[in-house]
Amino acid sequence: MVILGLGSNVGDRLAYLRRALHFIRLIPQLRVKQVSPVYLSDALLPKNAPNSWDMPYLNLAIRCETSLTPYDLLSHTKQVEINLGRKPGQNWGPRVIDVDILAWDDLVQYDEALHIPHECLHERPFALWPLADVAPHWIYPLPGPYQGKTAIEMVAGSRFSGDAPFHTRQIQQRIDTSQLVGILNITPNSFSDGGKFSSVHHALIQAKELINAGADIIDIGAEATGPDAISITAEQEWLRLEPLLTTLIPELSKQFIQPKISIDTRHAGTAQKALQLGVDWINDVSGLTNKAMQNLMSEYDCDVVMMHHLTIPAQREHTLPLNQDPLKLVYEWAERQLDQLSIPRERIIFDVGLSFGKTATQSLELLKNITLFKNLGMRLLIGHSRKSLLRSYTLNPPDERDLETTVLSLYLNQLSVDYLRIHDVDMHARAFKVAASLVPLSETTQK
User: Which member of 13, 19, 63, 86 is catalytic?
Assistant: First the structure.
């Protein structure tokens, strides 16, 4: 059993940690078995360090199995650091990634190249807490007051309060699960939360709550597109969006965890104005069928969600033919769309459009076979939160369907769906945390 520690305190820290995990999984003769939650902490600084070095860290631990030697693994981890842009020999100062060998069974090895176990673990909760999450029974082998104690016996205090040394505390975002796309509707008539966040003040509060709850992306919609919704013009849509975006974007830039901002729109004019303000994604509910939107997306370097639909807004009477295979119909539609686009596939995220032109049975059939759509070569986003397809399981109204939504999300996470667009981010982050911890020491889980 090998425990690797990952840390980052430069730029998009979560993105660097995710990329590092990706490269680690490519190391030959090494298997990733469990990934810890992510911890936020102050930087560990040497004496007389410049103030510019005082940048908070994100840290986590990975439990692995390997037949490599410690020196071979060290060589691979250093290459991971180089792949992500870290300069060789950079031992102090802000850096995009650290990959350290924290522990290796009961091995004790201290030489010029390797220090195993990692120094001063008992003084560094940002390393010890994650280690204890994935290897609670690892026994500290070095002489001293902690010799013979397990990792879980060595930790002290709370994971969550920030009272530990370096103000270490666990955050909600993870790097080994589907990323959570928090829904922020600023419409008066959305099906489950219409009118709740129409004011800039309330929308800003909600955006910050979604981040703290664990959202990686905030998807903002100003036009309701569900059944019975009334279409609005691009001008009306922008009148709702502009006051929020001009306040939200600079405000979120002050947050330590800075989510990507997505705009849920089918209007190219709205998309262009939002991109000029600095948003990261365009979520096109009309599936890139509009030539103006296609041309716009070819000009910008942003990610774009392409959603299958029959009508916008959705109409209950318009569905895929009941006597045909919905998987085949949606898949072939996506292929046709891709053939006419000049946008690289790595920038396109596909949404099968649950409940948009599908019956509940058809939507569930798509969910049960969602891995088929990975063959398109795009990332996948699923928007199932509180939707009518959940009436197959409950009589509860839309705003009381978060339990059913979360159960479906756990299933989709196991299938490595990239993004889940959901309302209750807190419930999802908590559920994913519990699920990720239920990994027997004898079993492997790879995403």
Answer: 86
